[in-house]
Each structure stands twice: as structure tokens, then as C-alpha cells.
Design goal:
Elements lengths: L32 H12 L4 H15 L4 H4 L4 H28 L26 H29 L12 H26 L5 H4 L18 H8 L12 H18 L5 E4 L2 E5 L3 H9 L11 H4 L8 H16 L1
Antiparallel strand pairs: 1-2
Helix pairs in contact: 2-9, 4-5, 4-9, 5-8, 5-9, 6-9
Length: 329
Amino acid sequence: MRKGQIMPARQEWNHVPEVPIRVSPLWSWPPQPLAALKWYADSWFFLTINGAIVGISALAYLLASPTLDQAATLAPGWVAMIWLRNAVIVSLVAGVLHLWFHKYAAQGTDMKYDPRPFPRKGRMFTLSDQMKDNIVWTIGSGVTIWSALEVLLWWGMANGWAATITFASHPVWFVAIFFLIPVWESFYFYWIHRFLHTDVMYRFHALHHRNTDIGPWSGLSMHPVEHVFYFGSVLIHFAIASHPVHVMFHLMFYGLLAITTHTGFEGVLFRNKKRLHLGNFHHQIHHRYFECNYGNLDVPWDILFGSWHDGTPDGKALLKERLKARSRV
């Protein structure tokens, strides 16, 4: 660059989807029933992450899980099987997505939000390497705490401390639970996420926010204290009658959705068309600015409680004003 030449401004985003960001039309007024129906159909049916997680949970239940009779007594065999099964699933999902998007860049930077390359190096990361940092915390802490909570629920259900149902006994409730878990997740995640951003808790959450640019292994890269709070949502199954496959889906929904939504890309392209939706721009903005977009798009908690950034320049300006006003308090 020649002396006196002005350095061009760094490009903030490589890809920006349609903005302003929209939340579920279920909460629109006047009501939009057809739009709400399409929103949830697009989230659950045909080629969707939610549907895939239901399928993975069912296969894992049938092929790599104890029976309730076996789970009545804690034993190293079935406990280790649960940890190994979860570690393999996480490694396959995160590993394949990393290879596709980042290692071999199969779709280049098309639909990649952040213009910076992933992974990165730096002393802020364990072993000075973002990938190693993410893998260590994901497998060593995330899968272990996820599996420990799953073991606790299996053991509790087997011993009658948590009520259980079957499809034969309660078919409507059995199916409904799959659709209700994301609703509970929306409520739980927003408030636990706000709590993790308090002065007392951010010392733990800061580990996750090392990832200002994100990849699949970033989603579950958290401090063990955060993992306890994050996966602790599943303890609601001690209060509601459910089935072990619901527990498995609940934990996989939290675990695998964290991986897919942290790919750094909006979705998978095939023949120049998005075939599978993955990362939400809403959460990518949170990793850039931290103090906004704590929840998700299924319920408008961020709008209701003043932490919304809609992805537009006006949304960024409003965020700056909120932060300035808070600093003056």
C-alpha cells in the first residue's frame, strides 16, 4: 500500500441472508396461520436437521442403548457404551461438516457468514490452535457431561424416579414431546444464556466466545460449568412422563444442533440451491457482538426483552446505543 493511501474498510460479512431477520410467524399479529404452518413444516419435515436428529436418536436407541432393565443397576458396560456412542456421533457430524465446509471447502465461501478463514491460531486457544481447543472441550467435557446426564435419566427411569410412557400407552403425548422439546429449549436457552453473560458467569462462558469465527467443532466448545447448565435442560424429564428415546432426542437436539448451527455457513448448496439449512445469521451475530441475540427464532424472547439485532445496519446502530446507555448506568 502506497504512503498516504487509505486502507479499505474490512468487509464485515462475506454473506448476508435476507434481512431483517424474522422470528416464527406463530407470534405475528394479526395471525398468519399458513405462514406459521410452513415455518414448522420447513423445520421438521423432509430434509431437515430436526428430522435427522429424531432419526439418529431412534437408531441410537435401537442399536446402542441399554434396556431399562439393564439401566436399573449402574454398570461400566452400558455407561461406557453411552459415552462412546455419543462421542462417535458427535465426531462424525462435526468431522464431516468440518471436512465439507472448511478442510476441503467443497462450496468455497458461498453462504459463509464470516469472511475470515476457520480454524485460526492464537494463544487464546488451548494448544494455540482453535481446532484442537474445540475438539478437546467438545469431547472431553461436552460429550462426558451430556452422557452423564443421559445415564442419570436412564437410571432414574429404570428405578421409577422419573415416570415413563410408551407409544402404545400414550401415542399422542409420545409424539407431541418431540415437538415440545424445542419450545422448552427456546425458553430455557434464552434465560440460561443471559445468565452466562452476567459478570459472575462470563468467566466460564468466555471459553465458548473465543470462537468469534465459528466452525462445527465450536458449537460444543464450552467450559464444563457451562456444559452442566447447557445440558441441564434435560432434567425436566424428572418432572414430565416421557420415554428414554425422548431423553436421547432432547440431549442430541442440544448437542447436534449446536454443531450444525455453528458451521459458519447458512446451509448446504447443491446445484446452486440451498438444500439443507444449517447456521442461523441470528446466532452468528451473537458471536460477533456478544451482547445480543441470546435466544433463537422460534420464540421472540430477544425482541421482548430488548436484546434483538435483526441483521440490518439499523439493528447494529440500536445495539451500539443500548451498550452506550448501559455503560452510563
